Amino acid sequence: MCGIFVSLSRDTYRSPSEHVLKLLRDRGPDSVKEARVEIELLDPALDGPISELLYATFVSSVLALRGERIVVQPLVDEKTGSVFCWNGEAWEIDDNLVTGNDSEHVFSLLLQACGAGFDQDHLVQTTRRIKGPYAFVFYDNQRKRLYFGRDCLGRRSLLQGTSPTGELILSSVCDKGVSEQWSEVEADGIYWFDLSSRILPGARYGEVGSQLSPPYPPLNKSVALDTLTSLGPASPPVGILEDRLRSSLALRVRDVLNRDHVDLDGTSDHISNVAVLFSGGLDCTVLARLMHDLLPETETIDLLNVAFENPRIHKTSINGTHEALEVYDLCPDRITAKASHTELRTICPGRNWRLVEINIPFAETQAHRSTVIGLMHPHNTEMDLSIAYALYFASRGVGATHDTKTGCIREYATPARVLLSGLGADELFGGYQRHATAFARKGYQGLVDELELDINRLGKRNLGRDDRVLSHWGRETRFPYLDEDLLKWALAAPVWEKCSFGEDLSDVTGDEAAALEPGKKVLRLLAWKLGMKGVAKEKKRAIQFGARTAKMEGGKTKGTQLIG
Q1: Do you know which CDD domains this protein is assigned to (predicted)?
Q2: What is the DSSP string of 207-256?
Q3: Most Cβ neighbours (<10 Å): which of 114, 158, 188, 479?
């Protein structure tokens, strides 16, 4: 995980403000560096003389999670003077595992693409070879071109803004001191500016290069079926999902570098390198259960569960007394988390499953309100804020845990620098109530249309915002359900192999697995197969309602209402 800031100015080098520099450092606490490049702009009416200069400033912060050493960014090629800022994880290139530091590897490929016989499509083709989440800025000094973009899903944040004087800013976080007009860089291609001309990009943005071809097929919208085969725990789709999810998790949880670990008792017996954003629901608990099979049993898995004091629900304020814990213990996601935690401990007794209870009083929520709003910008609705609150405090990872030996409650802050999120499962497998509603109205045609809408807007609607909020505490969030190979299968499979709306359950008396809720049926059956029958039956609950962040400042507020 890294933070990126790039500015182009006619007047002077424009470094990020102290506020933005702090936000970048919060994202990447291991190193921060600035590189400057003076770019000669040629007058097209003349043959050679310099018309004026353009000042390019590149700043990168780094959270080092791979390799044996910290690779400081921006990377600068001594031979060509080209510069690279990378915020991502290249898990595979050309289907080959990338070991060690991936930023150096990707930079090398881009430099090769810009070598002899250069064609702009060569550079775009290079990005297509990468599996994993990323945002990047690459300056090709030989041709005076600036390239930037995000992966096809938009799993990493990159924003674009322009100052009133025409300065262009690309940044992982927005700087309202430079501009009020910020937008997400679209996750639909590689953008570029030709800086050798005298026209500095201003209100008009650069051209789109060749569009990125998604590394997965379009959603299978077939609805023509003669018979609907009932799904069960032994059905082929369940086995395929398990295999794909295990492979996805293996890339994301193994060999995580953690230089700063200090355990509760000062030993390394219960190291926690990876934590789960844990509501106790189906998506995240399946991830936790499969992680158990991939990590050494000596490694603790932290389960981060957040609960809020909501004055709309809790009429009296909380004064920090022991009785006040009831407010959090009665939070829907806390109840679910405790039940799922118990089930994990029963099924996998050799693992230390540490449930971290993160309780947030309303006063603390309000104290961080402006920070959260700034991080999620340019998203600015009440729903954005309610979701961002939950992600922000959960990823901070500061709460309390129950010592299983003594029964005592101890304050605790997770040392994990990698977080896992279950995001994507609802969109792929039909987990939202609106999917059931769409099926009730228009059958499978209505359902696949709704699923396609959700999948196509996932990056624009969720992921850039979530990356800015989750990364604020120097942790990287990874999304196993959005792995490219898993996506290939999930999107190509017919919808009835993923959920079971419309299935005839009249003859399944006594078959609890067959009678599971139809939304995300294939994932529910996987949970059942793994022994987590309680989790398999758990109903979907939106994060803002489960953590009680919805409508915290007024019961009549609508989710689509803009923040004042």
Answers
A1: Asn_synthase_B_C, Gn_AT_II_novel
A2: EEEEEPPPSSPPP------S--PPP-TTSHHHHHHHHHHHHHHHHHHTT-
A3: 158
